[in-house]
Amino acid sequence: MKKQKYRYASSRRRVKHNRAAAVVLTAVLIALVIVASIFIGDKLIPVAPGEQGISSSDETPTPSETSESPDKTETSEEATPEPTPSPEVTPEPTEEPVSQGSIPTPEPDAPAYQSKYPDLYVTDRPKMHVLENNSKVVYLTFDDGPSDLTAPLLDVLKKYDAKATFFNCRQSDYQDQYSSLMKRCVDEGHTVAVHTYSHVMKEVYASVDSFLDDFYKMYTHIEEVTGQKPANFFRFPGGSRNGYNQAVYKDIIKEMTRRGFIYYDWDGDSGDASGNNVSGATIYQNTMNAIHNDCNVILMHNIFGKQSTLDQVGKIIETAQAEGYVFKAMDGTLDPTHGYLMTNREFISAALESDLIQLSDWRMEREGLS
Ligand SMILES: [Zn+2]
Question: Which of 51, 140, 177, 353 pairs with 171 at a CA distance of 20 to 30 A?
């Protein structure tokens, strides 16, 4: 009995001892796990300078075609879409380390502005196309809004199920409530693109830096109020070549094209920019003549003083729709070097050099490159 008691007591001691050992072992194991995970965690976070804070766990640590994009929502056309790569799989080495998202690295001796706004690139532009002759596609474009005239214009467009493109800015008489109209534009299937922030030509065109600063301000503003990136194209205030930008337009075009942005002038003009009292009859006639002459991109305005434009839009759409025309919103796939839209060599040369822009087959053929 005594012996039994002793054996019982001794086995209890052994159990106690074993428990203590288990606790110590567990603690050591936990410590090891923590140390290991810190180490592995460090390895998973890319630390290369110039990387833009990619910290997602499914980003592979080595630069590769699948992990180069700084913004996962923007994948380059060139980047082959693959099923989500496992971090354990060693990626195929690429011929050369590619910078993020096919974004071109600033050239040696490049102007400092090339390093500005590293998020201001278009890396997901689809290949462009041209329209057939007499395609009956009309892109109404409205510059300078939003304004008091935007909501009624959207009502008219809705009535006829017509889509349009808005080149927006924030001029001095801008009111905060206009911002929600940009959201409405997007929600109703129209395209919202940058036309610069201030529209003060002297300032916007003072230098490439001023242009970029102003552009970026509007670009981020549109993104903020609409919840999505603005269009991957823009329109220059005053058109791509005007009395204010002679000294800088070539460099601005080069820089914006390098960043993957294209721009549109127009091939049809409503004539509403020539003053605030252009008669409705003139605007109607100019626009219908342009449409009948196979123009596709029509210049109009949607700001204070352009009531007569607004008054004509319904009639223009109704007449043209009855003749078989369709009113679409631009999506950046129309090659701006086609027809009378733009005849700017600077853009063509820069676009041909860019990996971010694929001009249409039509243009490539013209350049002897297809
Ligand atoms: Zn304008």
Answer: 140
Six token digits for residue 246:
């002679």
End-to-end CA, the chain: 102
CA distance 187 to 10: 79
193 bridge partner residues:
167
CA of 244 to the centre of ligand 1 (A): 13
Give the pLDDT confidence score for residue 285 in this predicted structure.
98
Per mean pLDDT, which range of 43-57, 185-199, 237-251 is the poorest? 43-57
Mean pLDDT of 362-366: 94
Tell me the pLDDT tens digit for each residue of 4-33. Answer: 444 444 444 444 455 555 555 555 555 544
Q: How far is the centre of ligand 1, averaged over its atoms, from the C-alpha of 168 (Å)?
A: 8
Q: Is 40 exposed, middle or buried (0-12, 13-18, 19+ CB in 10 A)?
A: exposed
CB within 5 A of ion ligand 1: which residues?
143-144, 237
Tell me how many domains the chain contains.
1
> Within 13 A of 103's CA, how many CA atoms are on the CB side?
25
Print the domain residue range for 197: 137-366
Question: What's the pTM?
Answer: 0.73
Peptide bond into 146 cis (omega under 30): yes
